[in-house]
Amino acid sequence: MPTKNRQQTLIIAALSIIGLFAVDQFVIEPLIKVWKARETRITEMRASIAAGKAIVQRERGIRNYWRDISERTLTNNASAAEHRVFQAVDRWAQNSGAVISGVNPQWKRDSEDFTTYECHVDVTGDLRRLSLFLYNVEKEPLALRLQSVELSARDKEGAQLSLALQFSGLMLTPQKR
User: Fold this and answer.
1) From 4, 93, 108, 114, which residue has the greatest number of CB atoms within 10 Å?
2) pTM value?
3) In the predicted model, what is the mean pLDDT of the chain?
4) Nearest-angstrom CA–CA distance, 86 and 102
5) How far, in Å, CA of 88 to CA of 121, rounded?
6) What are the residues whose beta carbons fall under 8 Å from the beta carbon of 55, sequence distance 6 or more?
7) What are the pLDDT digits (tens) for 83-96?
């Protein structure tokens, strides 16, 4: 094979290899990346659709659960809500035999969607009565959240105890339809 033909063949082969490399780097690789990104996005969308379908299928249960929670919240009438909380605190004390030494309530507007009614209650009694008082607080059907509990002894033997309890009640703002 003559030298000129061999050089042309080598130049053509080298240019072909460079061309194939360029096509691979600038066409095939970006297309593969786009295809994989698209595949990932389709997978995410399918998962989102499946989650949405699951929520739609559980709609009745979710609505019933929300209705139950909404019914347990404090009423939108502030004085009636305070009255319900004071009745609950009084009921807890009567059922447990503990003595209420102080109640300090306070309204807080946290958001346009809800208001919280924070209440600090001081209770005295022996360990059995305070345990029963806390049990009554925990089983209360109102939407109350226990935020802090502090127990301290009032005498050296620990027979008389003091319980400082802070909880908050939830009052939802009615939504306009």
Assistant:
1) 93
2) 0.62
3) 88
4) 12
5) 12
6) 62
7) 999 999 999 999 99
Which CATH fold would you assign to the domain 75-172?
Alpha-Beta Plaits (3.30.70)
Q: Rounded to whole angstroms, how far apart are CA atoms 57 and 115?
A: 32
Report the SS3 class of residue 92. Answer: helix
Residue type, 101: S
Compute the Cα dihedral for 91, 94, 97, 103 and give only its sign.
Answer: positive
Residue 2, both tokens: 């003559």
pLDDT digits (tens, 9 = 90+) for 111-140: 777 888 999 999 999 999 999 999 999 999
Sequence-distant (6+) residues with CB within 8 A of 63 are none
Alpha carbons 163 and 154: distance in angstroms, whole number? 10
SS3 call for 173: coil
Residue range 39-76, pLDDT digits in tens: 999 999 999 999 999 999 999 998 998 888 888 888 88
